[in-house]
Amino acid sequence: MDVASCRCRVANSISRFIHLVTCSGGSTSTMPSEKDYRNVVSLLKHLKPLLDEFTNIRLPWTEAVYEECEDLDAAVNEAREFLEKWSSKKSKIITVLRSKPVLLKIQMSSVKLSSHIFRQLCLQESQNLKIGQLSELMIEILRSQEDSQNLLQIVDSLSLISSPDIVNESIAIEKERQLVEESKRDDEDDLSQTSLAADLMARIQDHVVKLDGFKARNGVPFPSYFRCPLSLELMADPVIVASGQTYERSAIQKWLDHGLSRCPKTGMLLSHRNLIPNFTVRALITNWCEERKVTLSEIQPFASKGSAVIINEENGKLDSSSYAHSRSESLSSVVSSIDLVAVAEAESRFSGKPENNAAAAAAAPPSIFDSTSKRMTAGGSGNQNATRSLLLPSESGCNELTSASHVEDLVKKSLNGDSSEMQTAAVGEIRSLAKYNMENRVIIGESGAIPPLISLLRSDSEQVQEHAVTALLNLSINEKIKSRIAESNAVEPLIHVLRTGNSRARENAAAALFSISLLEEYRIKIGRSGAVKALVDLLQFGSVRGKKDAATALFNLSIHHENKARIVQSGAVKPLVGFLDPGTEMVDKAVALLANLSAIPEGCSAVAREGGIPLLVEIVEIGTPRGKENAAAILLQLCFNSPKYCQTILVEGAVPPLVALSQSGTTRAKEKAQQLLSHFRRQRENGGGRGK
């Protein structure tokens, strides 16, 4: 059974018949069986969504379904041909007599097909009913160390997606545990369930923080060690409880108001219920907020799922999606919004860093979180040049304001250190200083550090090379320093890292090239430098993060017309078409880049040659709004390029999803879908076209 071909045929036949009857206007108004035809159209309109659902959930086609689809396709085409040949000069009586058996065939085939499909859908639903599945998932999560997908399913199923939800669930679990303890029940099931619930809640809290995080209204992410262990929010009024742990006042007060007597984090019995203000932590948070122009009252918990919303500290613009929309046709209506998540925090995507670890608060030095600490010195408000000494977890100096002399000393050590360890440590410190602080980036950039960092890109030490390229990436956020890096001939050394570095170094080299390519004149220079082939290699063979960085850099380079052919000739289309599979994490990035490349004939040929057309049709049907838009744009370019491609697109069943897109897509998606449908109509009116 050729199921795909059958599905395409019957869908296209139904769409053509519905379009013919509904758009014929006056031509059917005088036809004796006009009402019958419209009733059949109504029947088919109800059948089509059922058939689409059956196809979308990929149920196996039985012989009966296949045969009924074939019969329906034949009946619909027979009725369509009869209608197309009818004219007012023909006998009305004979028309009625001949229409009846044709329309009855459609009616009977539709009823039989609906019955078969409905039976299979019901059977599938009944098989999917797995009682106790959520409970099994919970147990499986606790057995495994890493089970992010199941954790996400639990979070969604139980709606534990906001701070109040998490606090309330934590309180409910503790109340149940306290009730079991006070009643001295020996029921092993009760004890086991409360213990399991507490363990699972701890895993959920860690997972939710890593997955979604929190954001302020202007999108600045905050360090994990400023987050309340109970509410997971940035603490505005931190207080210390009897156990020595620090919490947000409103969260721990709610906990205590429910009569709970143990510390949420340590489980210690609280000797008293007093809440002592933690002025040290409050000062740290206030200082951090002032540096980033964040008002504590603006903090809103939980960013949208799947969206790391980061503010670009240089221009105040939000970067909240992988690609942002633009009306410029020259950009294929898609412009990268620095998928490197604002580059300033480029390093934060690597696991194990305190900013990524919700458990870092527990590992923080007592000097930050206990009531006895007074270790925080800061220059008075009148002394702006005073050096701050704020002890932060794991990277105690990474956010301190540095000095030109200190940077110059680090540069000397990085070039002429007494040992490789000293050299690595010096470059690593420059990397850390450039990571968070805007002022540090300026000081480093103006202290002569850029040429030495560029020279270290050719270091034989992988660690030194990684530190150097990441430092340059962090520095490139500042527009003036970015220009200085580009003018210092950094492109060739960055390409060297792309080819020879370790995984992280290659990722950050691609990110740095992307950052430099935002300077229009360097978009051309980078394209001519040989970077394209190295980026395509990373796109094809790199890590997942590396592939994403390479795609982002190539997208920006492809904006310049001259680079499109280079990218195609370097073999980028093959891996990009592979990324169109819905199972990958790269669909929208790949289709956006292909939309640019399809603007040239070589790009269209490569997309078709690598088997991209069926996948593009599928994206038009089930992709994201932006993915559908770009997929439709590529299909339109393919149709303009060759009648052969147009025919292939039709065979793949593109008409139904394009009709839907023309009615419910984005503005540009509707426009592209309508242009495609019009092109198909012209092709049909002209008798089709022969392939080249």
Automatic annotation (TrEMBL):
Aminoacyl-tRNA synthetase in keyword set: no
Gene3D superfamilies: Leucine-rich Repeat Variant, Zinc/RING finger domain, C3HC4 (zinc finger)
Listed pathway(s): Protein modification; protein ubiquitination
Keyword terms: Repeat, Transferase, Ubl conjugation pathway
Chain ranges passing through the membrane: none
Domain spans labelled U-box: 221-295
Protein name: RING-type E3 ubiquitin transferase
